[in-house]
Amino acid sequence: MERILVLGAGTGGLVAANLLASHGYPVTLIEKRETHLFQPGMLWIAFQGHNPSRYTRPVKELIRPGVELVHGEVVGIDLGERLVHLADGRTFTYTTLIIALGAHLDYDSTPGHRELVERYGDFYSGASAAEKMWSHFKELTSGRLVIAAADPLYKCPPAPHKAAFLAAYTLRRMGRLGSVEVHLALPFLHEYPSEVIARIVAPKLEEAGVRVSTLFTVESIDVGEGKIYSLEGEELDFSLAAVIPAHRGPTVRMEPGEVLDEDGFIKVDKYRLNVEGYDDAYAIGDASNAPTSKTGVTAHLGAEVVVDRIMGYDSRFNGRTNCPIVADGTASFVISSYDHPPVPVKFTRFKRMLEDLFIASYWSSLMYPERWAPIFRAYFNATDPRVISGGW
Amino acid sequence: MSERITVDARGMACPGPITKLVRAYRKASPGTLIEVLATDPGFKPDVEAWAKRTGNEIVELAEENGVIRAVIRVTGKK
Questions:
Q1: How does pLDDT run across A4-13, given as a tens digit for each residue?
Q2: Interatomic CA distance for residues B51 and A232, integer angstroms
Q3: Among the CATH numbers 3.20.20.70, 3.10.580.10, 3.40.50.720, 3.50.50.60, which is that of A4-32+72-103+249-382?
Q4: Which of A367, B41, B46, B66 is buried most deeply by CB count within 10 Å?
């Protein structure tokens, strides 16, 4: 009997499961958490004091009839035997598997990191970590807030920039931007991995009053002394710091192990998204090694491609990104695909309105992806990097 | 003989090759040679800027049949 198993109820997993159910497929969705978090919300919780309830929903309220929800933690996947093992000993079999388990945050490869997150929270480790960051940030009256990363590969490439912008605007509103320095330390050569985007973001950061260091990859953190040391041999003092952890593939036992790359991400055909060597298993979103940004947009678009393929269409994922960079009242997007590097996209109010619309549509787009598909398709076609290659 | 690490970043677009270099650099001990192979044309100026800023030595930087080959000696680590 046909059974499609979807592992993980993040953006990609929910879109895939709900879309499949809408087409009448029997779907089982396995998730260890009770609640789904809109992950960019952590930025607003941590640096603007938003209520976490705005960005969290019970998973069971986000699935449609036809999706069977199983609460449990996946610990093993056997692709040859078509088996999925849960921590509590249960075993599931499948005819088609969609792995959407996200990335694992690795605090232990950076000395002092775990202590830093336990003390101050951050904007990556969950809604309560973000609340903890806000509780410290709102009390900061002098000194330096450092926003940095332990590795150049992390989900949502503009996240540290957004954190710096939001923090700077909050401090300005509090009248503290003069006495508190917002310092963005990036593990890249320029203010953004893509130089085209760096040229657009750099003046905006300056205008917002954010100090920037480039080529600063966090190597270790001394929480007691308030110092961060970089791989490149520099150091920064901090009063408060949030460091993006190194990302690894999901922590499940995988058979065969060869389908994992050196960081534990699942090797896929970057267009078809099937696990290398298997046509009945797919990996989408952060869990895969597809050479594009790890973001909710790529997870959502990847889920649509996989569902199309399960239905028999020859859909291909083109690696499209649409990473929003939110500044004060304006926004820009990092728009690229496998075949096209990021295009210059100016900060405008209109794009901020679009981003606010995307955020407002989030819960609905997880549950009813097919209703939003024509709207998103129109947007993605109109803003295809080949169409707007000269700039937008 | 020095320890040698090879990083194959062929086919990766910017900033892929530098990201891979940074990750190899994290694991490398002083004196190690890191060899990076890349096809992204932006890699040449990027690796030069990276080496200059981090105090590491470029032993070799050549392009052949569209493949850029950079060999870096780790001299920027204590």
A1: 999 999 999 9
A2: 10
A3: 3.50.50.60
A4: B46
Q: How far is CA A390 from CA A340, A349, B15, in A?
A: 12, 20, 21
pLDDT, tens only, A307-340: 999 999 999 999 999 999 999 899 999 999 999 9
**What's the angle, vertex CA B11, arms to CA B16 and CA B6, rounded to 5?**
70
Dist. CA A370–CA A383, nearest whole Å: 20
Q: Which residues pair with A37 in a beta bridge?
A: A56
Inter-chain touch A152–B23, beta carbons under 8 Å: yes
Is residue A204 predicted with pLDDT exceeding 60?
yes
Domain ranges of chain A: 4-32+72-103+249-382, 106-247
Query: B44 in helix, strand or coil?
Result: helix
| A27 CB-near residues (< 8 Å, 6+ apart) | A4, A5, A6, A17, A20, A21, A66, A67, A68
For residue B48, give Cα distances in angstroms to A64, A232, B54: 53, 15, 10
Q: What would the mean pLDDT of A230-252 be, rounded to a whole number? A: 96
Chain A residues bordering chain B (beta-carbon distance below 8 Å): 151-153, 187-189, 193-195, 215, 217, 219, 231-233, 291, 341
Judged by CB atoms closer than 8 Å, whether chains meet at A233 and B77 is answered as yes
Say yes or no to pLDDT of B14 above 90: no
Query: CATH top-level class for A106-247?
Result: alpha beta
Helix (H) or strand (E) holding A200: helix A195-208
Same fold across A4-32+72-103+249-382 and A106-247: yes
The tokens describing A6, both together, are 């979807």
